[in-house]
Amino acid sequence: MQKRILIVDDEIFMIQLLKYNLHKNGYEVYSASNGTEAWEKLKSARIDLVITDLDMPQMDGYELCRKIHSSKNLQNVPVIIVTCKTQSYNKEKVSECGIKEYITKPFNPSYLLKVVGEVLK
User: Fold this and answer.
1) Which residue, 41, 87, 113, is CA-closest to 101?
2) CA 74 to chain centre
3) What is the DSSP letter of 111?
4) Rounded Cα gap, residues 119 and 11, in angstroms
5) Which end of the chain is more exposed for a tag (fewer CB within 10 A), N or C?
6) What is the value of pTM for the model shown?
């Protein structure tokens, strides 16, 4: 069965780039442009992995991660952060939100695919 991945980013180009690479490698991909939209999709579809940005309108990536990991039904869904933030992110916030990996933009798509494969094992 195909693994289902939800991409959450307010930049359409980033969603398209991730979708292309993930589809090409056999994943079923969903997308949302903010945390609120992602939360609704998570409640209605079985998702195996979330790849999200941190800075988004309506609900940021940290809040989305907190909601995922405090939900009885979703707490085991792994989260990978893909963001422009490098030094300014809060390591404590990242670890308390249950984030599995943190990748900074720009990134090599093959590296992202490697990380996705490892997280979904």
Assistant:
1) 113
2) 13
3) H
4) 24
5) C
6) 0.91
Counting beta carbons within 10 angstroms of the beta carbon of residue 70, is it exposed (0 to 12), middle (13 to 18) or buried (19 or more)? Answer: exposed
Q: DSSP character for 26?
A: T
The CATH number that applies at residue 96 is 3.40.50.2300
How confident is the model over 58-112, as pLDDT tens digits?
898 889 999 999 999 999 999 999 988 665 556 666 666 778 788 888 889 999 9
Give the mean pLDDT of the chain: 90
Question: Residue 46 belongs to what domain range?
Answer: 4-119
Q: Counting beta carbons within 10 angstroms of the beta carbon of residue 100, is it exposed (0 to 12), middle (13 to 18) or buried (19 or more)?
A: middle
Task: Please tell me the total count of domains within the chain.
Answer: 1
Helix or strand run (H / E) with residue 63? helix 61-70
Helical (H) or strand (E) element with 83: strand 79-83
Cβ atoms of residues 116 and 80 within 8 Å: yes
State residue 50's pLDDT score. Answer: 98
The token pair at 119 is 């997280």
